[in-house]
Design goal:
By secondary structure, the chain is α+β, with helices and mostly antiparallel strands. The chain has one domain. It contains six helices and twelve strands. A ten-stranded antiparallel sheet has the order 6-7-3-4-5-8-12-11-10-9. It is globular. The N terminus is likely disordered.
Length: about 230
């Protein structure tokens, strides 16, 4: 029994250490100490830079140059919704951190509607969400569109203490359930979702557009402190 517990502990350590200690999980051609999720630069004028990209300014083409060409671009839509134009990476090395990355393209709704009309096919994802494949002409054109938001899902699970250690104290802490907490950093344009039952999510926008992250949270039911 003790041997089994030791093996489990070693496996957990192998998963967690790469996120906590620089220099671990190095990959060829990747600087383990650059482009890390907590290395957010702000310009004092409402802009920011993370992973070498500027949310709200950098284009999808620049995302390809920085994070790689292996990006899956499509329209992701719920029933009765126009949908959003997104690019998805199954795995990206962000310094020594491995993560899934989703970028949301700042495309006008009319442009998305037109792309849907020219789309090659649509397929169902989880539940009723649909993934709509773009026409090749549109796929080439969207490279010139700016990216509104960058979402990162690390491969390791994070706890609140680790997030605060790396990013500093949040400007606001919003608990939406017993195990799900939003740590909000308006000055960085960042929302870190710590989820005890699922994967953590880091969402980046330009600080001047932080309302894109904060306003939807105002509509969520918020957990009340015990005893009140």
């Amino acid at each position: 029994m003790k041997f089994a517990l030791s093996i489990i502990a070693l496996i957990l350590l192998a998963l967690i250490v790469p996120f906590l200690i620089p220099g671990v999980a190095k990959q060829e051609g990747v600087d383990p100490n650059a482009n890390l999720p907590w290395q957010v630069e702000v310009d004092g004028q409402g802009g920011s830079k993370v992973f070498g990209l500027q949310p709200g300014v950098s284009t999808l083409g620049e995302v390809r140059q920085k994070l790689g060409q292996e990006i899956d671009v499509a329209i992701i839509a719920e029933p009765n919704e126009t949908g959003a134009l997104e690019g998805y990476y199954a795995q990206v090395s962000l310094g020594f951190v491995l993560a899934r990355v989703i970028v949301t393209v700042d495309a006008p709704e009319a442009a998305i509607v037109a792309m849907r009309e020219r789309a090659l096919k649509a397929q169902h994802m989880e539940s009723t969400t649909r993934k709509i494949t773009l026409h090749p002409d549109d796929l080439a054109a969207v490279d010139g569109m700016p990216v509104r938001a960058i979402s990162v899902i690390p491969t390791v699970n994070l706890d609140e203490a680790t997030v605060i250690q790396r990013f500093g104290p949040p400007g606001e802490r919003l608990a939406v359930s017993e195990k799900r907490v939003h740590l909000l950093y308006p000055d960085k344009g960042l929302d870190v979702v710590v989820d005890g039952d699922g994967k953590e999510l880091l969402q980046y926008v330009a600080p001047r557009q932080f309302a894109l992250l904060r306003e939807p949270l105002a509509r969520l039911p918020v957990e009340k402190p015990a005893g009140r």
